[in-house]
Amino acid sequence: MTQQTTTPDGLVIVDKPSGFTSHDVVAKMRGIARTRRVGHAGTLDPMATGVLVLGVERATKLLGHLALTEKEYLGTVRLGQTTVTDDAEGEITSSTDASAVTREAVDAGVAELTGDIMQVPSKVSAIKINGVRSYKRAREGEDFEIPARPVTVSSFTVYDVRDAVAEDGTPVLDLVVSVVCTSGTYIRALARDLGAGLGVGGHLTALRRTRVGPYRLDTARTLDQLQESLTVMPVAEAAAAAFPRWDVDVKRARLLLNGVRLEMPETYAGAGPVAVFDPDGRFLALVEEQRGKARSVAVFG
């Protein structure tokens, strides 16, 4: 008789391969972890690789609270060509000689797209317009507009500018860039808008996500590695890394788990979700301050 092993609660930091949707990775992880309770904290386009945060078992309750974090990317922007999807997956819609674009012009264009900006997501994106996914409307040939949304690009850096020639013979420029931004920012929309601002068009040809909140690429594992050895970050460790920590005594821990709204120290006012731990280091709950009291948003203890 084979022994049944229990799937541990926690986060799995995956280094997503290119060509997989985020849902594909979740489906694969369900097989690896032998549980249906797997979810992800924010999608990553099929073309992109890198950090994808998954929750397994009870850690799925953390995911909705992890989504609003800062993200970091390394990518390549091609100036001189536009595509239907604003990335290399889509059909090329225009080609323009970009060889005359100067580094100064590139830097000025990047500066325009840094800070608090309004961004129109790509039409081939998962944004819902009146309840229907944008990419579905685009595939059906519908003519529609997506409203601009506020996003923050805290850092947009060009590391290298390379002369290249596109397959159709057009002289183009490939920019190696890094971006640090808020959740919901589309890097391919940055590529599109940078190219549009420079008058030559642009799209994203490669993208690797190197960080989601506190979770970095150096802690991520490929699906093949996870198949060999499932590496799960325990839910308590994950919560301690992602949220402010509030340690309570035994009495308060008991009251909290019995549904009593504890008085919260003023230091947590407006802090968003706070992770509560008992004296033994056990993760009890995620709470939010509401009128000075702790309102539980997810209980784990």
Automatic annotation (TrEMBL):
Keywords attached to this entry: Isomerase, tRNA processing
GO BP term, example: mRNA pseudouridine synthesis
Name this polypeptide is given: tRNA pseudouridine synthase B
Chain ranges of the tRNA pseudouridylate synthase B C-terminal domain: 188-231
Signal peptide: none
Enzyme Commission number(s) of this protein: 5.4.99.25
Domain spans labelled tRNA pseudouridine synthase II TruB subfamily 2 C-terminal: 243-300
UniProt cross-references to HAMAP family, sorted A to Z: TruB_bact (MF_01080)
Pfam family, one: TruB_C
Active-site positions on this chain: D45
Molecular function as annotated in GO: RNA binding; tRNA pseudouridine(55) synthase activity
Role summary: Responsible for synthesis of pseudouridine from uracil-55 in the psi GC loop of transfer RNAs.
Domain called Pseudouridine synthase II N-terminal: residue spans: 31-187
Domain of life: Bacteria
Catalytic activity: uridine(55) in tRNA = pseudouridine(55) in tRNA
Family: Belongs to the pseudouridine synthase TruB family. Type 1 subfamily.
Organism annotation: Streptomyces ruber
